[in-house]
Amino acid sequence: MKILFIASECAPLAKVGGLGDVVSGLAKQLRSEGHDVRIVMPLYGQIDPKTTALKFMGPVCVHLGGRQELWAGVYEGLLDNLIPIWFLEHGEFFGRPGIYNENNREYGDNAFRFAFFSKAVLQVCKDRDFLPDVMHAHDWPGSPVAAYLKTWDRVLSPLAATATVLTIHNIGYQGVYPADVMPFLGLGKQWFVPDVCEDHGRVNFLKMGVYFADAITTVSPAHAEEILSPEGGRGLAPYLNRRRADFSGILNGADYSHWSPESDRLIPENFSIHDLSGKAECRRRLKERFGLDEDDSPVVGVVSRFVEQKGLHLAVAVLDRLLASLPFQLVVLGSGDAGLEDYFQKLPLRFPGRAGAFIGFSNELSHWITAGSDFFLVPSLYEPCGLTQIYAMRYGTLPIVRSTGGLRDTVEDYDPETRLGTGFAFDDPAPEALEAVLRRALETWNARPDRIARLMRQAMEQDFSWEKPAGEYLKVYRQAIENRRKLLEAEGVASGKPRLALNPMLESLG
After folding, report:
1. How many CB atoms lie within 10 A of CB 376?
2. In whole angstroms, what is the distance from residue 296 CA to residue 274 CA?
3. Is the peptide bond before 12 cis (omega within 30 degrees of 0)?
4. What is the CB-side half-sphere exposure of residue 87 using CA atoms within 13 A?
5. Which of 53, 57, 75, 109 is the most exposed place for a label (fewest CB within 10 A)?
């Protein structure tokens, strides 16, 4: 198949969360299976065309609503010397330090930035004569692509038969903005209704994608169930339920070429399930780097964005008491909420030798914490999939998670009777529940080291590679292509009878 990924993030070039890892990991797996996969993303200010060996391919003219005409530059590079990746350069929209925000403040023109990006994607495909079988859009920033393919490029377009798949990575971020972006989008007034994209007088980009996409996925089976419910759907449950026949949950995979203790170039020493001596050295060096006491206390690691979803406020409610009374050490890497940043930054001052923190992000340090910790804390209120717990298990670092979404799909709670499990889990999103599971994990560490060793082996044996998820995505792509074909036949397009009067492009041009 010819497959184009439309993404606002792609690791390691530009990444905020798991979306960037998924785009690169899935693309590489599909490419290895012989599919013509390409990626398109904005050229952010943090990406230097010179240091990333990008080649300028020329300009592209992007037509938007109200007869507006904007231009972008197109650069081409290779991801891991394998995947062609196109970058769209527009200094006013993308020549900034951040992706979505700066200094914890969202860019006020995000709706215009990613509407322009989505429309430009279609023009680049036409200009470069790359006509995908499937455009795979990721989250709300790529959602307008699905709308454009069924409005502007509905007929008399080389992209008329291209199907769209929308993957919802985090339903908590829907791209809801003032309605004044509608004329810029160039979508007719008939689409600004609750069933399509109107959301209490505003435009909801993700809702738009749910309506227009030929197939929809999210990133774990458990989360797919959750967001079909009123509580988990964040307002989109009714619209997802209407698309239930075209909606599925596919568990994310892990890119073990970057996340494997045997070959990881970023950690102090490599190790494997057969020889864990390197993990002990990683643990020693991690403690040294954060100024922790060199004793036998287990290390609990945290690598997270500081946002409400991640549930770190549950930990804040009990950490002072636990650090003062239990024999463990804590290492934290993250940024976001100012209150959480302040709390974790001051924690080492209150508990010297017991706690360490780095406010910000460091790719190298995330690998150090994953490899050198003994436990890995992920207390999310909701978690579509989560990748950090998957990475942690590969390194023999036992996850301590709340059993929700992808955390429930990937981490098996330790059962003292059967001695099976790959980590420790709790259900209730409450500080008391987190405290109880942390005490249970530490008690097992101290009283039953043989059980911990067995859990580590069981965790390291788990295989979350991309091969199986890629096969499931191919099934979804075929379903989307079939859905698109049936729609074209129903509208008479396939038989050469396009219904031009329904093309909103003509309406937008007056």
Report:
1. 25
2. 22
3. yes
4. 26
5. 53
Each residue's pLDDT tens digit, 193-242: 999 999 999 999 999 999 999 999 999 999 999 999 999 999 999 999 99
pLDDT tens digits, 297-310: 999 999 999 999 99
For the stretch 67-119, pLDDT in tens is: 999 999 999 999 999 999 999 999 999 999 999 999 889 999 999 999 999 99
The residue with tokens 């670092």 is 397
State the average pLDDT over residues 35-57: 92
Beta-bridged to residue 336, according to DSSP, are: 306
User: Is the distance from CB of 75 to CB of 54 less than 8 angstroms?
Assistant: yes
CA 488 to chain centre: 32
Query: pLDDT class for 503, splitting at 50, 70, 90?
Result: very low
3-class state of residue 76 by DSSP: strand
What ranges make up the beta strands (E) of 230-350?
247-249, 299-306, 329-336
DSSP bridge pairs for 248: 217
The mean pLDDT value of the chain amounts to 94
Q: Which of 133, 148, 154 is nearest to 488 (CA)?
A: 154
The crossing angle, in degrees rounded to 10, of helices 338-350 and 312-325 is 10
Q: How far apart are CA 396 and CA 280, in angstroms?
A: 11
Distance CA(364)–CA(206), nearest Å, equals 33
CB atoms within 10 A of CB 296: 8
Give every CB contact of residue 339 below 8 A, 6+ residues apart in sequence. none
Whole-angstrom CA distances from 164 to 84, 271, 318 are 20, 42, 46
> Which residue type, as a one-letter code, is found at position 444?
T
| Cα distance between residue 459 and residue 421, in whole Å | 8
Q: Per-residue confidence at 493, pLDDT binned at 50, 70, 90? A: low
Tell me how crowded residue 63 is: count the other CB atoms within 10 A of its CB.
17
SS3 call for 433: helix
Quick check: 315 and 434 in contact, CB under 8 A? Answer: yes
The upper half-sphere exposure of residue 445, i.e. CA atoms within 13 Å in the direction of its Cβ, equals 22
Residue 401 pLDDT > 90: yes
Structure tokens at 2: 């010819």
What is the DSSP pairing of strand 2-6 with strand 68-79? unpaired
- Dist. CA 285–CA 368, nearest whole Å: 9
The residues, ordered by sequence, that sit 6+ positions from 300 with a Cβ below 8 Å of its Cβ are: 328, 329, 330, 331, 373, 374, 375, 376, 377, 400, 438
Rounded CA-CA distance 30/329 in Å is: 41
- For residues 369 and 375, give the distance between their C-alpha atoms in angstroms, rounded to a whole number: 10
Q: How far apart are CA 504 and CA 189, in angstroms?
A: 9
Measured at the CA of 45, the angle between CA 171 and CA 77, to 5 degrees, comes to 90
Which is nearest to 314 in space by CA: 290, 338, 343? Answer: 343
Q: Are 371 and 264 in contact (CB under 8 A)?
A: yes
Residues contacting 157, CB < 8 A, separation 6+: 126
Rounded CA separation 263/202 (Å)? 48
